[in-house]
Amino acid sequence: MLLELLTFKSADLVISTNESYKNIALTRGHIPEDKVFVVRTGPDLDRLKITAPNISFKKEANFLICYLGLMGPQDGVEIVIQVADDIINQRKRRDIHFVLIGDGATLPFLQLESERLGLSEYVTFTGMIRDDHLLSEYLSTADVCLTPDPSNALNENNTLIKTLEYMAFGKPQVAFDLKETRVTAGGSSLYAKRNSVKEFSELVIRLVDSSELRAEIGSIGRNRIVDELNWNVTKMNLIRAYSFLFEKR
Prior knowledge:
six-stranded parallel sheet; Rossmann fold; 48% helix
């Protein structure tokens, strides 16, 4: 806290990634509001483009459920495996395939847990995908996307980029009802009670079983990205921040 305060006191300018961190700068840091600029990370629509679906990713299932992102202790990816277990093994839905895209410290555990639960036929781990076109194909093919970030001090105040990338592809998502997730995703997501795997699964099924609902809330996310949250829009605040700094000097 002392180091944070000293940093704020010595700063000529503060760039915050969202309103939650801006509020910390204003309150704990006592920074004047005109010196705090919110610069959100947003998808680059010139890099990630909607493509034709690749049906082979579904492994002969009717629906593809996608997780994209880091796989660390803070990301809650084990919840995706729990949801897959509930949907495939408990609810006996054999028309759904899960794909988990990404890498991280918990990936080996997730793979072992998937095998232990007998989910290998229904869950694909791609590892990290660095090819923009291939990543775009997966997101274009997905029917529902997952944001399983559990409720904790980190996730309450942050929205990870996967949430925005799902929105960029017009995909409906299921997330836990966290403050910054709701601020970012708005009506493009269905929200489960914090850390409730059962309700998370139920909302996934609700989306899978309603093409109308998927289309409705997916379009909300896509429009929000195009109008407000893509990088070509959000980068303007970064330019304004440096203009403010240089004019001051």
